[in-house]
Design goal:
By secondary structure, the chain is mainly α. The protein contains 5 helices and no strands.
Length: 101
């Protein structure tokens, strides 16, 4: 799945150019806000369902994708692939050691 996200990022980079980390972070925060709106909509928070109708899984999935895509742009910008893999492997090992996986 992350390979496909990285492929999308490469295409967008060709289309719009490479972005600096400050712009990526600004967009990440914006996308997190949009994801929060969709989660609130799913949870029936406030007047969302009256205002926006029934929750839509495709919209929620799109906002999740946008957040992951921005995070992966940060990983790519700082070339953190190896460190991210090591961090994930360490977390899995620790949870395995605690018999949680």
């Amino acid at each position: 799945m992350l390979d496909k996200i990285n492929l999308i990022n490469k295409g967008l980079e060709k289309k719009f150019g490479k972005e600096d980390p400050f712009r990526i972070m600004t967009r990440l925060l914006e996308e997190c806000g949009e994801l929060a709106q969709q989660v609130n909509h799913f949870e029936g928070s406030g007047l969302k369902q009256l205002k926006m109708g029934e929750p839509n899984k495709q919209k929620l999935a799109k906002e999740v994708q946008d957040v992951i895509r921005c995070v992966m742009q940060i990983v790519d910008h700082y070339q953190l692939q190896k460190e991210l893999k090591e961090s994930i492997d360490k977390s899995i090992k620790e949870l395995g050691d605690e018999k949680l996986l």
